[in-house]
What does this fold into?
Amino acid sequence: MESAEVMSKKYENITADGLRQEILVHTKGFKTSWISLGQALYQVWRDKLYHGWGFEEFEHYIVQELGMRKQTAMKLVKTYFFVEQEEPAYLKEEYRDSREATVVPSHEQLDVLRKAKQKKEITRDDYAQLRKNVFEKGKHEGLVRKELTAMIKERKEVDPEEEREKRNEASVKRVITALRSFKKDMETLKLVPQEIVDEAEFLIKKLEREAV
It folds into this structure.
């Protein structure tokens, strides 16, 4: 690694346009720098190499030797496997070199695509649109994730019977709430005989049992 002094002199002698180009190269390298780690972790996870290093679980190796969260490591492993299977061209240096920095996907963007591929609600056309937004438009992973969520919500099959039950339950709860309020007024203002108040209480409890 170059020292701070060497790096400082390096950038003192570079032109503005040269620096601009170098930043673009570094940006693409930054976005794809996860590949080597993801590939290595995938091999360790797949072949259970951690057993030979004295660890019973992959998580133990990740946390104790690498100081990494299991969730982070598994995201890299799963995303690498997904890319290897679905987007192998991304793993080649020529891909990075031939693309604009804005449309070189990060592992976060690719992880959203991976999750989209697993959703039964997502159609082939849906996935193609999400992929285009990642690989061609360079949309931020947050925006792609929102789009995926919206697609799932729109495509999700609605069970008419389940929806009917939900509406009925909501209606019963509204009636119970209204009865509670009315019962309180009846007691406070002495609007009706006590036996009617008692009957209202009985009805409320009965409705509550039905709503469970």
